[in-house]
Amino acid sequence: MLIQTSNAKFLIESCLNRKDCVQINSTSKEELDRFFGSLEVMKSASFEFPYQITACKQEFANALIIMVKEIDYSDFSSLELHSV
Questions:
Q1: Residue 84, domain member (yes or no)
Q2: pTM (predicted TM-score)
Q3: Per-residue confidence at 50, pLDDT binned at 50, 70, 90?
Q4: Is the distance from CB of 49 to CB of 9 less than 8 angstroms?
Q5: Quick check: is 8 in a domain?
Q6: Are 41 and 32 spatial neighbours (Cβ–Cβ below 8 Å)?
């Protein structure tokens, strides 16, 4: 799953060795620290998403709640929808 905020992009992937966790890759170490402050941010091998963490699904759900609360709905009028 891809998530894009105003400050970063996130790539969410399943954890191969733990079903109760997800691997979260990001373009921003600062945003990973902000959403998952208690977890260690590591460098990844990816050029596009150079930072990563492994988080339990509950920690990820809590971060998603924060992301949704930060949506600026007044900004939607400036967006233009394109059909695919």
A1: no
A2: 0.81
A3: very high
A4: yes
A5: yes
A6: yes
